[in-house]
Amino acid sequence: xxxxxxxxxxxxxxxxxxxxxxxxxxxxxxxxxxxxxxxxxxxxxxxxxxxxxxxxxxxxxxxxxxxxxxxxxxxxxxxxxxxxxxxxxxxxxxxxxxxxxxxxxxxxxxxxxxxxxxxxxxxxxxxxxxxxxxxxxxxxxxxxxxxxxxxxxxxxxxxxxxxxxxxxxxxxxxxxxxxxxxxxxxxxxxxxxxxxxxxxxxxxxxxxxxxxxxxxxxxxxxxxxxxxxxxxxxxxxxxxxxxxxxxxxxxxxxxxxxxxxxxxxxxxxxxxxxxxxxxxxxxxxxxxxxxxxxxxxxxxxxxxxxxxxxxxxxxxxxxxxxxxxxxxxxxxxxx
Length: 335
What we know:
The chain is an alpha/beta fold.
């Protein structure tokens, strides 16, 4: 009898989860602007290619910088059941080849959760790129056997130069989107993390606001919807790429403060949302995350309202997957 009740309860819970997971908003077809394609800019313009979640490829024609590194996609069942997963070698090889990552100088995760840093070691081992990050990110790299001369434990606020790019990592926080406003998978990775591992082994390990400077412009990347430890008024930026995963669940006051901290304070002329897609889908298959994890449509409406109230000259642009974007180029009548 008891076993039957437990089985029925689990079946109901599984059905409810499936229904919740299927309820998702549409991607914003008309809410925000389209990005300026690289073809509309000069040949040597800095481009950024969004590769899902918060993985971004910066490229100035000479040097490439990869923010995060997540191409393997554990399934929903893998995540819910906390099953050990491995790096998807075929998908990693495809991504590196398809998006021309042949001049990769640095791989820089915003934090060490699986959906940001799971593949950084595998990517580094297929290139000569350095991995920059926290002690937890370094543990991921060492677990993958990355040579020590490709590993850099960052110092907060220090500037790192790769070609014409200057990279600064500022201490930040992760959005409190877990149970009872906790950070999911909090804590640090204390020892080299050798695969296979469940996704829960990828502890947050500290988060960063990443400032990507270049003679052409400055971009601020906020992978999770948390706050940098200090105000960004002294960090003027042209572009802000904002993680919005779970943001809508945190309420209007939180979102307003988030906008003012990352957008108003930096004076950015363009905002791109990140982390709005379902990271359990195969690499390259872009659909919005389920509504209960943060409603993208509601976030878009609120961002539009905040822009109209605080930063009327700021553009809101939805990135297109896999398409190089000229992020520092303001659109003209022919773009």
